[in-house]
Design a protein that fits this description.
about 260 residues, alpha/beta, Rossmann fold, about 20% strand, globular
Length: about 260
């Protein structure tokens, strides 16, 4: 890709993004963050995961429950498959139309999360939760989905894309989850002081009340923060906008919204 940002440099290709995300995923997994996320899942029998990354999150889920993984990145799908097979987890990569015939512990569906046509196939499988953890995307894919040219990016687009994707997760859940089904979203945040963690939890709940429809119960009792003393990134991917606080504290926010 030859387009240059005036201030941000050359955007990553999908292949570069996949390799950089693998670096982050190994760090996140090594610090036990994915284990923390899976501990918050209840007794679900089948989970839909939005995005597979390099497979670290998918592997953590596979240790607890069967899953369908939705990903449009073929490079990441391949990395995820390699990771799962290396850990003796059965996996298949299929088209959405082949979902009903798939029998592996993990089924990776190569599809666009924003396509409404996936909903009828997923609803038939009766998943009990949708997880969306530390979501990101390559610049080219973000540009396509927020309808903005790459050369006009200003380093806030990832946050805008995440918000759109989280809203889509809630929409998807409204159409495929039964009552008491769960949407579980984990994201990176920065706060000025750890003493502000309670107000930060409140802010997370308020934000997700706005994103979710009246179909969900969004409660502070299902909202958590986890301090990340070593940060969550070791790659050159920019996932958090420039923070207005000096020496801001990095953390993970987690919220489970329950389908009414």
């Amino acid at each position: 890709m030859s387009i240059l940002f005036s201030a941000l440099g050359t955007p990553m290709t999908q292949e570069q993004y996949a390799q950089e995300w693998k670096v982050d995923a190994e760090h996140i997994s090594g610090d036990g963050h994915y284990s923390w996320m899976t501990e918050q899942l209840w007794s679900q029998n089948l989970v839909v995961e939005i995005g597979c990354g390099a497979g670290a999150s998918t592997l953590a889920i596979a240790k607890k429950v069967e899953s369908y993984v939705l990903s449009q990145y073929l490079t990441l799908v391949e990395l995820c498959e390699e990771n799962l097979l290396a850990n003796n987890v059965s996996v298949q990569a299929v088209k959405i139309s082949e979902l009903a015939e798939a029998k592996s512990q993990v089924v990776i569906v190569n599809c666009d999360i924003f396509e409404s046509s996936i909903e009828s196939h997923l609803k038939t499988m009766r998943p009990e939760a949708i997880v969306c953890w530390l979501i990101g995307a390559a610049p080219e894919f973000i540009a396509k989905n927020i309808y903005k040219d790459l050369e006009d990016f200003t380093d806030v687009e990832m946050a805008f894309y995440r918000k759109k994707l989280h809203k889509r997760a809630y929409e998807l859940g409204s159409n495929i989850l039964d009552p008491k089904g769960v949407i579980h979203i984990v994201e990176r945040i920065k706060i000025r002081s750890w003493n502000e963690k309670y107000s930060a939890r409140t802010a997370v709940v308020e934000m997700h009340n706005e994103l979710a429809s009246a179909d969900y119960l969004v409660s502070k009792s299902n909202a958590y923060l986890r301090r990340t003393l070593k940060g969550v990134s070791r790659s050159s991917i920019s996932l958090v906008s420039v923070d207005r606080f000096n020496e801001a504290i990095e953390a993970l926010s987690s919220i489970k919204s329950v389908r009414k």
